[in-house]
Design goal:
about 20% strand, about 450 residues, seven-stranded mixed beta sheet, five-stranded parallel beta sheet, alpha+beta
Amino acid sequence: MKVVILGGGTAGFIAAAHFTRYLPDAELLHIFDPSIPTIGVGEGTTPRFPGWFEEVTGLGFSVLAERCGATMKKGSRYENWGRYGQPFTHRFQPIHLFAYHFDAGPLVDILGEHVRATRIAGRVEAMHTTEVRVDLRLADGSAITCDYVFDARGFPRATNADGKPMDDILRLDWIPTNRVMIRRLAPGAPSEFSRAVARPHGWIFQVPLRDWTSCGYIFNAQLSTDEAVEEDFTSFLHGEGVTTWEPRVKLDFPNFVRRRSFDGRVFRGGNAASFIEPLEATAIGTAILQSRAAASWMLEHVRDAELDVGEIDEFNDAMLTYICKDSLFVAWHYAGGSQWDTPFWRYAAKAIDRARASDVAREYVEEMQEYIEAARTLPGGAIASYEDQDAWDRDVYPLLRLFLPFGNFSELNFAQVGHGIGYYDSRHDVAAQPTSMNS
C-alpha cells in the first residue's frame, strides 16, 4: 500500500507520524513545499494530544518543554463572559487529564524525526481519483500514483478549479468570529490555564508559553474594523501594564466543515477538512482524530477490490457530525452575551438561533439540549475546583447521567460553561447579580 501525505504544517506532520507508527507496512511519501512559512503563534491543546504524542514518539513533556517552550495546561479561564461577568474556569474533566501549551514550529521538527516517509519538496498541481488509485501531478511535471492520499494542505479554495462554488463546504455561520490579530508578548507569570477575556469587539486569548505569551484578538471583520480592534487591543494591554509587544499576523479564517472529507481514496484533514474558531483548542485534537480514522480505514480496507459507497457515507457523516457538534458547543459560549453591550455581542448572543436555521445543524441543536439540561443541576464552579482525583471520583462521577460525549464535550464541560456564562435561571455555584458595561 502506497500512501501520500500532503502538507508541511502541524496536521500534515501529525498524519505522517501517525501513519509511520500505525501503518508499518505502507510505503509513505510526504510532499510539501518547504518555502511556504508556517504561522508560529503558539498552540493550546486538549488532553487528546499528550497520550498520542507519547504513542507515536515515545517522548514526554520534558522534550516539549526543552524544545518547544511547552507549559502544562489544565483548561481555560474566562473573564467578562456571560450575563454575570464573573470569572470562571473550564477545566479538563476528569481532573487527572492535562494538555500542553507549546510553540507549534519546533513541534513539527520533533514529529519529523519520527516520520519514515520519503520527503518530497514540491507542490501538487493536479489530483485525479479513481476507485482503485490516486494520480498526482506535481508542479515540476513529475507524476505519482498511490493508493491513498491524506490532504492537509490548509484551507480549501472558495471555488473549484472550474470556478464554480464548492458544494461540499458547510459554512458554520453560527460562530460569530472570522478574523484574528496576533501579538507576541513577553512571558508572564507561570500558569496552567489559557485565558479568554471578553472585549467589545470579540475576545482576547492568551497562551502562556515558557519564552513568550501568545496573545490574539478574535473578532468579526464585518462588525469591527482593524483600526477599532487595534485600539482596543492596545488599551487592554496597557491596562495590564504591557507596553511592548511584537506584532505577528492578521488572519481571516472561515468556520466550516466539508460535508464529504473522504471520497474513498483521498482523506482531507486539518484545515483542509474543517476549521472552528479556536475557543477550545480543538484543532490539533481533531487532526489526531482524522489521522486515526484514516489509518483505521486503510488497515481495514487494504485488500478491498471495490469501494463500499455506504461505508464511505458513514465515514463522512461521522466526521461531519463530530465537527458540527463541536462548533455548536463553541457557539454556545456566546449564549449569555458578555459585559459589553456592543454590536458584536448582540450578534454573538444569537449564535444558536442561527444554527437552528441550518438544515444540518438543527438536528444537533436539539440533541445538545439534552446535555445542557443534564448540566443544569451539576455544580459548575465546584467541578472546576477539584484537585484530588479520588475526591472527584467520590463526589462528581456519581452525578453523571450521560456517558457519550457531544462531539468532544461531556455534560461536565456544559456545566462549567453554562453556569459560568449564567445560562441557567438559577445559579448553583456563584451568587451574583448582572451588571452592564457599555462600550
